[in-house]
Amino acid sequence: MTEQSTPDLILPCYPRDQVGVDPPLDYRGYGSTQLRHPLKPLVVLPQMLTEVTGPVLGEGRVGPTDNDLTVQHEGEPIGQRIQVSGRLLDSDGRAIPNALVEVWQANASGRYKHGNDDWPAPLDPNFTGAGRCLTDSEGRYRFVTIRPGAYPWKNHPNAWRPAHIHFSLFGRAFTQRLVTQMYFPADPLFSQDPIFNSVPDPKARERMISSFDWDTTEDHWQLGYTWDIVLRGPEATVFEEPHA
Amino acid sequence: MSRLGVTPSQTVGPFFTIGLTWDDGNQVVPAGTPGEVWIRGVVYDGAGDPIPDAVIETWQANQDGRFPSADDPRGAVESDGFRGLGRSGTDRDGRYQIRTVKPGPLPAPGGAIEAPHIDVTVLARGLLARLVTRIYFSDEQAANESDPVLAALPPNADARSLIAVAQEDGYRFDIHLQGEQETVFFEV
Known about the structure:
The complex is a heterodimer of chains A (244) and B (188). Chain A is globular, with a radius of gyration of 20 Å. Chain A has a single domain (31-36, 44-231), classed as Aromatic compound dioxygenase (Protocatechuate 3,4-Dioxygenase, subunit A), CATH 2.60.130.10. Chain A is mainly β. Chain A has helices at residues 49-52, 194-197, 202-206; strands at 43-44, 81-90, 100-104, 130-134, 140-146, 151-153, 159-161, 164-169, 178-183, 211-212, 223-226, 229-231. Chain B is globular. Chain B is 7% helix and 30% strand. At the A-B interface, strand 1, helix 1, strand 3, strand 4 and strand 9 of A face helix 1, strand 5, strand 6, strand 7 and strand 8 of B.
């Protein structure tokens, strides 16, 4: 047992110092928040052992075709083949290696393979829309998929979600858990989308938009997009060697 | 050193089961693990209706208070099939369930001892960022009374909302996102 006291336990700290990044839980523009956001203020939780640790996932959880959403069925899915790649970093620029990245998305016509999606665009028998991969030793991830379509929803009159891919990241500590969405450059639907615009700081909003990338665009094969994901990092430790 | 701006959170949306559910997601420990318990509950919205499209994730220490994580300064400890992470979508009646073991108490900085607890992430359509809460246990009254997090709750926070109630095969822990019985949620 570990009940003996350990007064010298020294834990990393993940500062909450970036403002304007995360959306408010109570956001008028997005109707579904109204009955689902807490009314009382959040209580600050000190970061202790449970918060600074996190699951190691991956081995046995990621199959060989899990990062290529275009080869998971007998035929090829309809749509524009794209590659989405980038790095998983913390806010001090350190790569986060061997971390699980999970994605899901609508098909090329903007329809999810989900029983509750009642948008009557066609389903694609060759597209499920789910992928997983592990970041490599330098924090890099890569998915091949088709570009998802935009789709309507009922939030406000003539409401359309900009094309997006959902991303889920664990990082290495409970403090770093992030679920977000990656968007595509210059989407004309941004201006009316309350989910995208719920992020208060316009510069932070931009960080959810991928970039078109010639280097990963392949002739007669695929368009390339890159997108780096940045999770909160631990504060630099006070034991670092001073610079000479 | 210039710091990078972090990536904002966005809602998990209504269709996360395509990508986020695992067949063994709710099994923090394999069946037959000594001391296994089921933690079950319902997630409610502010109208008191169950939420059928939420996902609950749990993270915890093992029965000895150790984590399978190299970020624990005491060192990582692997134990038989213990994953530490649980993940359960809610069903049409808003119910989730996790098979796990009750974690051991944990040392905290300054010599304090944290009572057995599980960290919880709640994700759902309508939540633009995750909610975080903690599960404590009704049969750990003495430990709960000296827990530093429970002791520091502000007066308007109802600590009872953080206590899972012992049942025949485990514990019951309901989560109320909003309203009179609102669960205490944390900024982590």
